[in-house]
């Protein structure tokens, strides 16, 4: 665990350095680009003043040292649009995106894991064929199409839930959960299909292992074999794939957030890119990267819980 934590800290430092260099290697002067959003060429004196204000006239190494020092203090800078602290805006938006991913993860595990196990245990049956075809269809439908269909069906036709928007949980818990359900399930449908396919393949592979055949030969009950030997071992690749997809979705839920008007982190990233707000872009990318590294660290630790051989 200590070795993994050390590697994760180095990865975070590498990511922070790469993001800093990438922003500074992008063609064009950030100050000039920011001032020329209206189309007219900005005054050179105003550009020079803004460069000084943003610290862009300093040597690159000095900017890097200041950048890393601020990161150590949790300071991601200030937005170029309204001088608001980037950290405060990310802290306000991040839980909303994490809520979507939590609902999607719970749904995908609750549906994909038992369905994939049942399909593997009944390989070649009608249930296996139908569930595999359904999973393939769920993977083929883009999230914005599925989100639009869910709005039409559940919000406009059946009127079970609101079409979109956001209400804080502290203000109205029930309304918050209703508004959260559709975007969370929209992400969760595709994720459940991935979990289903990985679970089915992993269970089929484990069922052919020698220790499973030995347990059957000893007369161990099928349920005990399934729970103690098959599912627990099959969970490892499933956990890996689920963590990778959740990490990717941290910054990739923008279409779902747009369809359901959900003010999360992905929407903030897109607006920051459009406004050429470099401190905000860097801050969001860094937070997403750190969360991705932390998620992979958690998966590595979970491996040791699922499989004693990893601990040894």
Automatic annotation (TrEMBL):
Provide one Gene Ontology cellular component.
Answer: plasma membrane
List the keywords (alphabetical).
Cell membrane, Membrane, Transmembrane, Transmembrane helix, Transport
Report whether S-adenosyl-L-methionine shows up as a keyword of the record: no
Listed transmembrane segments: 7-26, 100-121, 133-157, 177-199, 234-261, 281-306
**Major site of localization recorded for this protein:** membrane
- What membrane topology does this protein have? Multi-pass membrane protein
Molecular function GO terms recorded: dipeptide transmembrane transporter activity
SUPFAM superfamilies in alphabetical order? MetI-like
Whether Nucleus counts among this entry's keywords is no
Q: Which family does it belong to?
A: Belongs to the binding-protein-dependent transport system permease family.
This one is known as: ABC transporter permease
Q: Which organism is it from?
A: Limobrevibacterium gyesilva
Q: Lineage from the top down?
A: Bacteria, Pseudomonadati, Pseudomonadota, Alphaproteobacteria, Acetobacterales
């Amino acid at each position: 665990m200590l070795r993994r934590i050390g590697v994760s800290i180095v990865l975070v430092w590498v990511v922070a350095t790469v993001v800093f260099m990438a922003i500074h290697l992008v063609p064009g002067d950030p100050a000039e680009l920011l001032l020329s959003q209206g189309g007219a060429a900005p005054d050179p004196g105003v550009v020079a003043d803004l460069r000084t204000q943003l610290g862009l006239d300093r040597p690159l190494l000095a900017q890097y040292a200041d950048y890393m020092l601020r990161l150590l203090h949790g300071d991601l800078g200030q937005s170029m649009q309204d001088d608001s602290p980037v950290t405060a805006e990310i802290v306000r938006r991040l839980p909303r995106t994490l809520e979507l991913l939590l609902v999607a993860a719970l749904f995908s595990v609750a549906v994909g894991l038992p369905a994939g196990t049942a399909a593997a245990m009944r390989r070649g049956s009608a249930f296996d064929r139908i569930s595999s075809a359904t999973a393939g269809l769920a993977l083929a439908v883009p999230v914005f199409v599925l989100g639009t269909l869910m709005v039409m069906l559940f919000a406009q036709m059946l009127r079970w839930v609101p079409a979109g928007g956001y209400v804080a949980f502290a203000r109205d818990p029930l309304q918050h959960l209703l508004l959260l359900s559709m975007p969370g399930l929209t992400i969760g449908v595709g994720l459940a299909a991935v979990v289903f396919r990985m679970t089915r393949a992993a269970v089929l592979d484990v069922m052919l292992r020698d220790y499973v055949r030995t347990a059957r030969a000893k007369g161990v009950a099928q349920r005990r074999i399934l729970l103690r030997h098959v599912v627990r071992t099959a969970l490892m690749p499933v956990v890996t794939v689920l963590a990778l997809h959740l990490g990717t979705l941290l910054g990739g839920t923008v279409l779902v957030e747009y369809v359901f008007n959900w003010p999360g982190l992905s929407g903030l990233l897109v607006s920051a890119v459009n406004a050429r707000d470099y401190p905000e872009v860097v801050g969001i990318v860094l937070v997403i990267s750190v969360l991705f590294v932390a998620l992979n660290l958690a998966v590595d630790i979970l491996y040791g819980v699922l499989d004693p051989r990893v601990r040894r």
